[in-house]
Amino acid sequence: MPRSEATRLICTRKHERLYDIPTVIDALAKLKSTGRKFHCTITCGGTRWEENKTRAKAAGLQEEEVTFTGNLPHQEIPGLLRQADIYIASTYFDGTSVALLEAMASGLLPVVTRINANIPWIEEGKTGLLFEPGEVDQLAEALAKAMDDTEMRKNIFEENRLRVDRDANMKRNHDRLYQAFEEIVAKHRR
Q1: Can you give the CATH number for the domain in which 140 is found?
Q2: What Cα–Cα distance (Å) separates residue 116 from each residue in 93, 130, 178?
Q3: Has residue 187 got a pLDDT over 90?
Q4: Bridge partners for 113 per DSSP
Q5: Out of 72, 82, 90, 114, which could bridge 76 as a Cys pair, Cβ 3.0 to 4.6 Å?
Q6: Which H or E element spans position 10?
Q7: Could you tell me which residues are beta bridge partners of residue 124?
Q8: Band of the pLDDT at 1, cuts 50, 70, 90?
Q9: What CA–CA distances, in Å, run from 5 to 27, 35, 85, 144, 146?
Q10: pLDDT tens column, 102-125
Q11: CA quadruple 24, 26, 27, 31: dihedral sign
């Protein structure tokens, strides 16, 4: 069940150009400038890890507000997701993101970019919130809304867990794919 106060944020994307961690950092700095209290965990490593840590420090973000974990074993990620309230991804482009599906399955409210890969999964206000890639102000506004709207978080918590189980269950999808292949082969044998 979602907590009444949503102050724990998480981003599990790599520190590479395509994942646009600087937009996340700048949006967090904007939130801080409005007096909001939060803690954001940014996992993974990458070629821009040091650069992003420097950017956060220059933006006035303190260690109690942002933690950069570096690379972690994947088995540690579910525990971090369970501790969070809101999932952030500012990716410019992607395929269906396993990180997003993991966050949704954990009941987090996703705040992610409006890109083709996310649109099938995120229905504005119902399964998450969307913002345009690179738009710091939009991300900051969406994060503020996610933090403030307890009822939306509660509904999303329930909806996303069901949605991922229904539409992203690997075993179930494998069985569906296998059945479709069998039907195709049977048609061609006739």
Answers
A1: 3.40.50.2000
A2: 8, 11, 26
A3: no
A4: 131
A5: 72
A6: strand 8-11
A7: 128
A8: low
A9: 19, 15, 9, 12, 10
A10: 999 999 999 999 999 999 999 999
A11: positive
Q: State the residue range of the domain holding 134.
A: 8-189
Average pLDDT over residues 2-28: 93
Residue 186, amino acid: A
Q: Which residues pair with 67 in a beta bridge?
A: 41
Residue 99: inside a domain, yes or no?
yes
Any domain includes 3: no
The number of beta carbons lying within 10 Å of the beta carbon of residue 116 is: 9
1 within a domain of the structure (yes/no) = no
pLDDT tens across 166-185, in order?
A: 888 777 766 777 788 788 88
Q: What is the mean pLDDT of residues 69-83?
A: 94
Q: Is residue 2 part of a domain?
A: no
- Provide the number of structural domains found in the chain: 1
Q: Which residue has the tokens 């933006």?
A: 59
Q: Can you give the pLDDT at residue 173?
A: 65
Q: Please tell me whether residue 120 adopts helix, strand or coil conformation.
A: coil
